[in-house]
Amino acid sequence: MVDRPIRDWNGLTIPDPGIYVLDQAHKRIGFHAQHMMVSPVRGEFAQGSATIAIAEDPLRSTVTATIAAASLTTHHQDRDTHLSSPDFLDAARYPTLEFRSTGVRWQESNDAIALLARLRSNPLSRRGRPDAVLPAAARPSGKFLVYGNLTIRNVTRPIELQVEYGGARRDPYGQDIFGFSATAEFDREAYGLVWNVFLESGGLLVGKTVRLEIAGEAIHQAA
């Protein structure tokens, strides 16, 4: 089946309104934090689900997500056991991490800024030939901010996800899908994950800031 645009919105091809769920075969829920203030330790959650309700006005869309705390892995058994213990996620007592969106904003100005930077840096533009570098129409921005609340260990705090929209199409199986990636940072101590060790040389064994890195595809659910 030939893929096709779903619908157009401000120059972007976006999904039709409806309910979409995270494709378990095409997802990654990753994170990293600094170790001994010199290098990142990376890991991921193997089990997680998300439901995305795309509205007629995409800026009124909503997202809910659940992550299984015990599915955490950094590919090191002792470290994984410690991260799942009461010192950190306490997965036995708090089995899930939850996200609920509260708003969406389109970062429509990003491409104009990037275009201006390219124009200024291109030598042709300084020779009186801006037409050589200025496209007929600037590429629309696929960047969004998704605001919401993240709950860890029964503590809920606001968080902001920077989302890069990847596009929408119909796959060879006749399913309407769209792709995305997202990043966010939060202070783990704000959620009660306060365990640490002070280093003799100064600083802390585990960084306070955790960076989330999420990517995946969402599939439309038939009514």
From TrEMBL:
SUPFAM superfamilies: YceI-like (SSF101874)
UniProt signal peptide: none
Domain of life: Bacteria
SMART domains linked: YceI (SM00867)
Ranges where the Lipid/polyisoprenoid-binding YceI-like domain occurs: 19-219
Family label: Belongs to the UPF0312 family.
Protein name: Polyisoprenoid-binding protein
